[in-house]
Amino acid sequence: MTDVVRISDGTLVAEVQPGFGGRLLALYDELPKGRIDWIVPAPASSGPDAPHVRAGCFPMVPYCNRIRDGWLEFAGRVFDVGAKHPWPGAGHGRGFLTAWTIEHRTSGELDIRFDYEGKDWPSRYRAHQSFTVAERTLRVRLEVENTGASAMPAGIGFHPYFPGRGTIELVADRQVPITPDFEPGIETSFADGPRYEGSPVAPGQVRCLSRWSGRANLSWRETGTLRLSASPTLPFCVLFAPPGTDSFCIEPCSHVIGGLNPPQPRAGSGIVILEPGNSLAGSISMECLLSEQTGQD
After folding, report:
1. How much is the pTM?
2. Which of 3, 85, 138, 181 gets the most CB atoms within 10 Å of its CB?
3. How many CB atoms lie within 10 A of CB 179?
4. Cβ contacts of residue 293 below 8 Å, gap of 6+?
5. Per residue in 252-266, pLDDT tens?
6. Which tens digit of pLDDT belongs to each residue from 25-34?
7. Nearest residue to 290 (alpha-carbon basis) of 61, 80, 30
8. Regarding beta strands 206-220 and 77-80, do their DSSP bridges make them parallel or antiparallel, or are they unpaired?
9. Which of 176, 152, 172, 160 is nearest to 280 (CA)?
10. Is there a contact between 273 and 154 (Cβ–Cβ < 8 Å)?
């Protein structure tokens, strides 16, 4: 199932593999002197059952981050979320473990979707993801719709991996402390808002920002600057540096880490309760600006 789809505009190219969890495999410039990667490239996979890789950018749907012990309590019922992950419990939803179906594609656009119905979630749902490359920018939109007959909790987000050895500008007003068991604490304010430079956290550590600006600038001296923007429906931002690598993640999310841990959801967690027929959507854009020297080579 190496169904890799390539969309492009000028020298900017995005590669997506719908059959590998709807994952963005790569975003790069194809220049005469060679290829410049803006995210950590992921290898094409044989399908959604392939081992998890710390690369590319995958969708988080119908929830973000982890559910402790893989058990969801909702509306007086308990659901065994389970799933195949490289860590205890469940995490990042089912979208990145599922084969998506191509609905529409052109040279610069791709629309994909998947439908899900199972005993591990309170209702049937449908997820859509669209990719557009234009004007030096990749735009990705993610939507989840409750297509069943019962209410369901919902969350969405994006999990990109960026190469290290760069600088970061990212500002937020608040943060949510996270315990080692991925339980959210009480939201606290920063005096002036944190501004990060270099890797946002130490390898293996996680931070959860709330009410962030929705923008981050990532710069690499030898290549240029990536401007990451997120829609207002993604008010949380998770910072993570995978151990054993020099990459880092800036993950725009609709809800806090552990937002579905028992006895969640709670007020302020960002969890949305979707009634039948309702939907939740969010988007990110990555504007890729080559340095003057690189662009002239």
Report:
1. 0.93
2. 138
3. 10
4. none
5. 999 998 888 866 556
6. 999 999 998 9
7. 30
8. unpaired
9. 152
10. yes
